[in-house]
Design brief:
The chain is α/β, with parallel strands linked by helices. 55% of the residues lie in helices and 8% in strands. Helix 1 crosses helix 6 and helix 3 packs antiparallel against helix 6. The longest helix has 31 residues. The termini are far apart.
Length: 372
């Protein structure tokens, strides 16, 4: 079976009639919806989808055995199905799920036992794991059909996505009505960004702030940021040097790399960056750390010693200080920057920037524009 074509087929089927229920049991349907709507933990959705697509592909497997470490001939690699089929499907349609495999999350890592109802996976909220295992066992006992459960999950994810888009659309429209007035000052934008950074789950935002700055200037300076990698994706997996790679628009060579930290930058962080550049034999001009934490003077002193040794200039900058200087230096482009940042936030996968964080920015900006 061509699973990619199969997923496209059922997506088309579900999206054409989103009100159709694929699971008759209302109690089970409520449990599926709880998993899909759990904003604090999205890993069980992808885990469950990977198990379901594996069962559809190979009906003889035991759906409760998604790890090859489990004994028996009816085991399978759930991670294979997750990364090979579910990941690209979720990304293509921007479904509200994690962007990385569920099998690297603590609860689903290194399991060597059958996922019976007696197994208690550790994580919060407890219900998402309990319900996930219950659903696997319902299918194992042939009380439910894997394809029906998968279609119901896709249906609910589409409903949630459309609800989110509708709320976002209203917030954006409300903002547009306020933007005929004088643009926000540079300092007002800095305060707005700082408020957004103080929100929960904001670790991706500094990446978007720096990216927005370069997108604002790319024609002017002849440099632009490469396509961002998924949040939490390791450099070893992606082949990237840093979180943001700036390339020359003429020859596409990387000229500057940014590494974003939500903690203090250490000497070890800088040494690892040097090692990474040496291993890749990559010649760049700048390697810049952006942090939202304090910067120790000895770290600045250490970074300053490396140019003569490596030919690469290392710098450690404060995130807010960086963007404050940028906005004042390119004062006439400040509103363009803010609009680009807003769009980057909106377009980011919800696994990187949760829906609540997207709506928080639009609400904060609306309040700021209203008070202005």
């Amino acid at each position: 079976m061509d699973l990619q074509k199969f997923l496209e087929k059922i997506f088309d089927k579900v999206s054409k009639n989103i009100s159709r229920l694929f699971v008759k049991n209302s109690t089970l349907r409520q449990k599926i919806e709880f998993i899909c709507r759990c904003n604090s933990n999205k890993a069980p959705i992808r885990f469950l989808m990977s198990c379901l697509i594996a069962k559809i592909d190979k009906p003889t497997i035991d759906i409760r055995k998604p790890y090859t470490e489990i004994e028996g001939n009816d085991t399978y690699s759930g991670r294979f199905y997750d990364e090979r089929f579910i990941e690209s499907f979720v990304r293509k349609y921007k479904l509200p799920c994690n962007s990385i495999t569920a099998y690297l999350t603590p609860a689903f890592r290194n399991i060597d036992r059958i996922l019976t109802k007696e197994i208690a996976l550790v994580g919060r909220p407890k219900e998402v794991y309990t319900y996930t295992i219950e659903i696997l066992n319902e299918i194992y006992q042939e009380k439910e059909i894997a394809e029906d459960i998968l279609q119901e999950i896709i249906r609910l994810l589409l409903i949630i996505k459309r609800e989110d888009e509708k709320r976002m659309g209203l917030l954006v429209e409300n903002l547009k009505q306020l933007q005929d007035s004088i643009p926000l000052s540079s300092e007002q934008i800095v305060i707005l960004l700082n408020q957004h950074l103080q929100c929960k789950n904001s670790s991706r935002l500094p990446v978007l702030i720096v990216t927005a700055a370069y997108k604002t200037l790319e024609i002017l300076i002849g440099e632009k940021p490469k396509q961002l990698q998924a949040h939490n994706a390791a450099d070893k997996q992606t082949g990237s040097i840093g979180d943001i790679e700036i390339v020359s628009m003429n020859d596409k060579n990387i000229v500057t790399c940014y590494e974003i930290k939500d903690k203090r930058v250490t000497k070890n962080d800088i040494d690892l960056a040097i090692e990474k550049l040496n291993n890749k034999k990559q010649k760049i001009d700048n390697y810049i750390f952006i942090t939202t934490d304090l910067i120790e003077s000895e770290i600045l002193d250490y970074a300053n010693t490396l140019y003569d040794k490596s030919g690469v200039e290392f710098a450690v900058l404060d995130c807010i200080g960086f963007i404050r200087h940028f906005l004042h230096f390119f004062h006439r482009l400040r509103n363009k920057f803010l609009d680009i940042y807003q769009q980057l936030v909106i377009d980011e996968l919800t696994s990187s920037v949760p829906q609540s964080l997207k709506e928080a920015f639009l609400s904060l900006r609306q309040v700021t524009e209203s008070d202005h």
